[in-house]
Write a structure and sequence with these properties.
By secondary structure, this protein is mainly beta. The chain contains one helix and 25 strands. This is Pirin family protein.
Length: 285
């Protein structure tokens, strides 16, 4: 018996929003109590490619609690530092997977490539209740550490999870995610098997492709898929495609988001705000 094919449940057109110090973002979805994309909370596509946007804005110091933030760079770089003394640069092809846990303060400031471009994505992944107050940690992965797999007509970079026996360098994530960048040449075919109950999202940021054998989609779009065991993506002879793919196990827990915090109850958010006011939000490592 063949695996049940994943069909498109919803096509989302990203909307322009302003965050940080005037940063323009294309946002596909944001945290909400409906928690429709469990375990994923937010997906932003940021780019600073219009000369009228300079000087580059960024994300001055801000807090997080209860989530994981994932930065994936296509071009340019982001300099970061935090309240625990960590600092560094996320360059083109790099990934930073930050587990904020019980709390962290950090800033992220973009820097353009030689061509004057900054382009990348930020994904927020939820933490289950049992880990929301865990110790903060980073997994910073340089481009050369991310496996590149090239097969007939497509290539992919595996950040987390596994494909064709190739595992990504980001590990020990509660949502058991798959996170990868996939590129298809014209006339190519890509298939992925995954647990039927896992949430599956695809952000198509270049080109056009047919998903699930039924519907061609053109960039820029975020796709949410129905339950099923197999994703099928095909490109026509006229165009290739490039997309970010994310899948993970839902936690099935209620969430209460408030700005940069995502907890399970309103009382936990109130406690978080009280700690910020009292100066006890950041705890010693």
């Amino acid at each position: 018996m063949s695996a049940e094919l994943r069909l498109i449940k919803e096509i989302i057109q990203p909307k322009m929003v302003i965050e940080g110090a005037g940063v323009r973002l294309l946002r596909s979805f944001a945290p909400s109590r409906e928690n429709r994309f469990d375990p994923f909370l937010l997906f932003d596509h940021f780019a600073f490619n219009d000369p009228r946007e300079t000087p580059l804005a960024g994300f001055p110091t801000h807090p997080h609690r209860g989530i994981e933030t994932v930065t994936y760079m296509l071009e340019g770089s982001v300099r970061h530092r935090d309240s625990l003394g960590n600092m560094g640069v996320i360059a083109a092809g790099d990934v930073q997977w930050m587990t904020s846990g019980r709390g962290i303060l950090h800033e992220e400031m973009p820097h353009p490539s030689a061509a004057g471009r900054v382009d990348g994505f930020q994904l927020w992944v939820n933490l289950p209740a049992a880990l929301k107050m865990s110790r903060p940690r980073y997994q910073e992965i340089q481009a050369q550490e991310i496996p590149l797999l090239e097969k007939d007509g497509f290539s992919l970079r595996v950040v987390a999870g596994e494909f064709a026996g190739v595992g990504g360098p980001v590990t020990e994530i509660a949502a058991q995610p798959i996170y990868m960048e996939v590129q298809l040449l014209p006339g190519a075919r890509f298939e992925l098997n995954l647990p039927a109950e896992h949430t599956l999202l695809v952000y198509l940021f270049e080109g056009q492709a047919l998903f699930g054998g039924t519907q061609p989609v053109t960039a820029l779009r975020m796709l949410l898929f129905e339950a099923g065991e197999r994703l099928l993506v095909e490109t026509g002879l006229a165009s290739g495609a490039r997309f970010m793919l994310m899948a993970g196990a839902p936690f099935g827990e209620p969430i209460y988001p408030y700005g940069p915090f995502v907890m399970n109850t309103m009382e936990e958010i109130q406690q978080t705000l009280a700690e910020l006011r009292a100066g006890t939000f950041i705890q010693p490592a």
